[in-house]
Automatic annotation (TrEMBL):
It comes from the Bacteria. Residues 224-322 form the HTH araC/xylS-type domain. Keywords: Transcription, Transcription regulation. It holds the Pfam family HTH_18. CDD domains: GATase1_AraC_1. InterPro entries: Class_I_gatase-like (IPR029062), DJ-1/PfpI (IPR002818), Homeodomain-like_sf (IPR009057), HTH_AraC (IPR018060), INH-QAR (IPR052158). Coiled coil: none annotated. This is GlxA family transcriptional regulator.
Length: 327
């Protein structure tokens, strides 16, 4: 009997183990579960499964009954492996025969993803050999020693290499799920999911996992008003002075406070927001590339092409071809 009941939906299997991190399981169900078409139809069916059905111990003070076994993995279009605080991690342990069997059922054409140290399971199965991958920064050194054939990048939020995806930690699991939703059904659906979950709609996978800086001292003013204004005027030429004036600060003070709050310079942030707006317009509108460039503040198609190539490694037309979905 089939595990998934809705063949018209994209089938997602979440393969959990003893010691599972409850939040990581919740992330997958919450994000994919909210994705809907313009007609309000659910786009994903998410099933939790485990190598051996029964009560699964969590990293908290309760267990979760999981009725579905590894047969769900064989039917899934996407298989997601969250982290475990008990099984396999930290390094030096072997996958259980049951977990190996479950992983062996993943179809060659299926997409497989890990959250946090769930990457150890993918690596142990050889799925990351020769591929770019990431895991939680605390485990990066041990991971690299144990799996030298993996092209580990410990400084990014998530990676995509073919049909294999990895993410760095719990919060970056949100970013990865939104990235996959965006890949499957476009920016409009992903943005609605992000809005419903009250999270940022998009963070680049190449963004650093963490920034070593002290928490800024509480201040009576911040740079949020300037950021909000900039987002409403991305089509205009915006200088650092323009932003500082919005907060009644000197350019020097504004620059320091902006970096404290956002973790990057104001001009870096502005470019990032313009690239994000360009992506949205390329996906959702019929505007020619030169008008997309103007609407984002890049001015010319050549400038847009340069910035998109630097950020994503593709041209505007190639991006539109890949991500544009039919109405």
């Amino acid at each position: 009997m089939a595990v998934f009941r809705h063949p018209e939906r994209h089938k997602v299997a979440v393969l959990v183990r003893h010691g599972m991190l409850v939040m990581e399981l919740g992330i997958v169900h919450r994000l994919f579960g909210q994705a809907k078409s313009g007609d309000g139809e659910r786009l994903y069916e998410v099933v939790t499964c485990t190598p051996e059905p029964g009560d699964i111990r969590t990293d908290s003070d309760f267990t979760i009954p999981v009725a579905q076994g590894p047969e769900a993995v064989a039917e899934a279009d996407t298989v997601i492996v969250p982290a475990s605080s008990l099984e396999y991690e930290p390094t030096g342990r072997q996958l259980t025969p049951q977990l190996k069997h479950a992983m062996s059922l993943v179809c060659p054409d299926s997409r497989i993803a890990s959250i946090c140290t769930g990457a150890y399971v993918l690596a142990a199965m050889g799925l990351l050999d020769g591929r770019r991958a990431t895991t939680h920064w605390r485990s990066a050194c041990e991971f690299q020693l144990e799996y030298p054939r993996v092209r580990l990048d410990p400084d990014v939020l998530y990676t995509e290499d073919g049909n294999v995806f990895t993410s760095a930690g719990v919060a970056s699991g949100i970013d990865l799920c939104l990235h996959m939703i965006r890949r499957d059904f476009g920016a409009t659906v992903a943005n609605e999911v992000a809005r419903g979950t009250v999270v940022s709609p998009h963070r680049e996978g190449g963004q650093a996992q963490f920034i070593r800086r002290p928490v800024p001292e509480p201040r009576s003013s911040s740079t949020s008003a300037a950021r909000a204004w900039a987002l409403e005027h991305l089509d205009q030429a915006i200088t650092l002075r323009d932003l500082a004036v919005r907060e009644s600060m000197s350019t020097r003070t504004f620059t320091r406070r902006f970096r404290d709050e956002v973790g990057m310079s104001a001009l870096q942030w502005l470019t990032q927001q313009r690239v994000e707006r360009a992506r949205q317009l390329l996906e959702e509108s019929e505007l020619p590339v030169d008008r997309v460039a103007a609407a984002c503040g890049f001015g010319t198609a050549a400038s847009l092409r340069q910035h998109l190539q630097a950020a994503l490694g593709v041209s505007p037309s190639a991006y539109r071809t890949t991500f544009r979905r039919p109405a």
